[in-house]
Specification:
single chain; 202 residues; mainly alpha; globular
């Protein structure tokens, strides 16, 4: 499947030429939105991918046969649940972000992730049996739920809104820099800066 996908991508995907030079591309580092989105990216997808990778290992090392408890649980049996829940929530929670706004859900998710991670760390300090395992499992799945909710806004709506707003700002700045080519030209964004207010007197 990977080979087929690579061939199809090579045949059908279009190249998007990058017209900006290196210096122009480095301008993103002066944009505060770059740093905001980087922090939010690490908070959501970074933690999601990291915990997805170690979920099964944590179960084996802390509760399974490789741990001092030796409980009859296997990480592979439960490891898929976290990414599954996160993916389903990310796919289905968009309607709530559209209605209530993504910022509030991002805030709720951040608080939820902090609380669940703290509770998970507390459980893992001294697990004693199956009860602690089920508590750990519930907290992990809840944390993946918050990962999914936060990802909806950050990877879709926020990027779209930032790109749209930045594009409009750049376009307006570009128009403001245009010089009137003819005496009877009208630049409504720079109407009074070019002496065109004399039209009202006429």
């Amino acid at each position: 499947w990977c080979i087929i996908a690579a061939i199809l991508a090579f045949v059908y995907l279009r190249d998007v030429p990058v017209k900006a030079n290196i210096k122009q591309q480095l301008d993103i580092f002066s944009n505060p939105n770059t740093w905001y989105m980087t922090i939010l990216y690490v908070m959501t997808f970074g933690l999601f991918s990291g915990f997805s990778a170690v979920f099964g290992l944590l179960i084996n090392n802390q509760f399974g046969r490789e741990s001092s408890l030796g409980l009859p649980v296997l990480g592979a049996t439960f490891a898929f649940l976290g990414p599954l829940i996160g993916s389903i929530i990310r796919m289905s929670w968009g309607i709530f972000c559209d209605r209530m706004g993504g910022a509030i859900w991002t805030f709720i998710s951040g608080v939820g992730m902090a609380i669940t991670m703290g509770a998970i760390a507390w459980v893992l300090t001294n697990p004693t049996g199956m009860t602690d395992f089920y508590i750990f499992l519930g907290l992990m799945l809840t944390m993946f739920l918050f990962f999914g909710i936060a990802s909806v806004y950050i990877f879709v709506s926020a990027i779209y809104d930032i790109g749209k707003n930045e594009g409009q700002r750049i376009e307006i700045e570009h128009i403001r820099m245009l010089e009137l080519q003819r005496k009877d030209s009208i630049n409504q964004l720079n109407y009074y800066d070019n002496g065109t207010d004399s039209r009202e007197q006429e």
